[in-house]
Amino acid sequence: MLKNFKNLISVTLTIVFPLGVFFTAGVKSASALTVNAGPIWNNNDAQVKCPVATARIGGIWNGRWISQRGVSLCLVDYVNAGPIWNNDDAKVKCPVAATAARGIWNGQWKTTVPGVMSVCGVN
């Protein structure tokens, strides 16, 4: 029973900004963090909206987006975490970075700019 528990998790956060710009971030599936960027009409529209919406939560858009029940979602596999020096450091920093983005650290991380930036995998 516990092995299927991960699929039952559903967390959503909606943020409203002063000019009415909003997005929703949540864990909608076991494979990627999703961010609502408002309506996305086509792939060209996603190329503009998804990088902005996912950057607001410290996420890195993976190039994929989906529409479900009239809602368009941008998918995020990684969130920025600052420099990570080793696996022990990742075990401290990645859960914090993933939680800040309303996700769950999946145990993966990689350095993107040596000594400057690393990213943590999120679900």
Give the termini distance in whole angstroms: 20 Å
Global morphology? elongated
What's the β-strand tally?
7
Low-confidence stretches: 1-30
DSSP strand content: 35-45%
Q: What does this 3D model show about the protein?
A:
- This protein has helices at 43-55, 87-100; strands spanning 11-16, 22-27, 33-36, 59-68, 71-82, 105-113, 117-122.
- With 123 residues, the protein is α+β, with helices and mostly antiparallel strands.
- The protein folds into 2 domains: 2-76, no CATH class; 79-122, Dna Ligase, domain 1, CATH 3.30.1490.
- Strands 1, 2, 3, 4, 5, 6 and 7 form a 7-stranded antiparallel β-sheet that branches.
- It is elongated.
- It starts with 10 loop residues before the first strand and ends with a strand.
- The model is unreliable at 1-30 (pLDDT under 50).
Distinctive features:
123 residues, Dna Ligase, domain 1, elongated
Blueprint (SSEs and pairs):
Blueprint: E1 11-16, E2 22-27, E3 33-36, H1 43-55, E4 59-68, E5 71-82, H2 87-100, E6 105-113, E7 117-122
Antiparallel strand pairs: 1-2, 2-3, 3-5, 4-5, 5-7, 6-7
Question: TL;DR of this structure?
Answer:
The protein has 123 residues and is of the alpha+beta class. The chain has helices at residues 43-55, 87-100; strands spanning 11-16, 22-27, 33-36, 59-68, 71-82, 105-113, 117-122. It has 2 domains: 2-76, no CATH class; 79-122, Dna Ligase, domain 1.
